[in-house]
Amino acid sequence: MSETIQVITSEFVKLNVSNSSNDVVSFEKKFDKKLTIGELKSKLEVLTGGNKGTMQLELYSGSKLICKIDNDDAYFGSYPIDDNMRLHVIDNIISFDQDVDKFELTETQYENRQDSVRSFLKRNRLGKYNDEEMKQLELKKQEAEKRELERLEKITVGSRCKVTTTGHPTRLGTVMYKGELDGKKGLFVGVKFDEPLGINDGSANGKKYFECQPKYGSFVLPSAVEIGDFPEEEIDFDDEI
């Protein structure tokens, strides 16, 4: 008589949550695999400030996209999720410019309403009204900022580097700048790529930080940069048709 082997997996999964409105900070959260994707989006509304109706979800392992999570009726556990993966929330909120009078409440009127989002969050001790959760989020933020600073200190201007960011191919280039950017929170690394795979000419918000041709420059987070002896990309035009 053969013995039946059962594989028992946890009912919960621990993920890092990031969102498109803040590329610097992500935080760790545990989710029930029995949640439907619709229910998951409702929870993420509170956590990220996104909109359930326009929210899109992507699952990553490191920088590799595992899959898009796009079926609101499916169970979260039906997707290939595993501990320490990253759940990325994309907030595609469409805004319309309309020449109509807006109805606006005063702060006191909004505070006294019982059917507002703020009232719901307060009653259920969610989001910024959960002191312990906010304390944990602040600690996560401080740890992330500390890691970025430590990584930045090891990066030297003039070094060859490899840059890996979501939605872009791996790019090789040279470090041209490191530090703060006017009007931006956080620390950044300015890179001049070997090929026109960037988004600027070394400028950000109208200020020039380094010299390069248009589309050859970008500013990225220190965590996206790997320093090494990467040979410069050579483009062989003879092979092009």
From TrEMBL:
List, alphabetically, the SUPFAM superfamilies matched: Cap-Gly domain (SSF74924), Ubiquitin-like (SSF54236)
Q: Where in the cell is it found?
A: Cytoplasm
An annotated GO cellular component of this protein is: microtubule plus-end
Which controlled-vocabulary keywords does the entry list? Answer: Chaperone, Cytoplasm
InterPro entries, per database record? CAP-Gly_dom_sf, CAP-Gly_domain, TBCB_Ubl, Ubiquitin-like_dom, Ubiquitin-like_domsf
A single GO BP term for this record reads: cytoplasmic microtubule organization
User: What is one Pfam family matched by this protein?
Assistant: Ubiquitin_2
* Domain CAP-Gly, first and last residues per copy: 179-221
Give the Gene Ontology MF terms in alphabetical order. Answer: alpha-tubulin binding; microtubule plus-end binding
Among Gene3D superfamilies, the record links this protein to: CAP Gly-rich-like domain, Phosphatidylinositol 3-kinase Catalytic Subunit, Chain A, domain 1
Belongs to which family? Belongs to the TBCB family.
What protein name is recorded for this chain?
CAP-Gly domain-containing protein
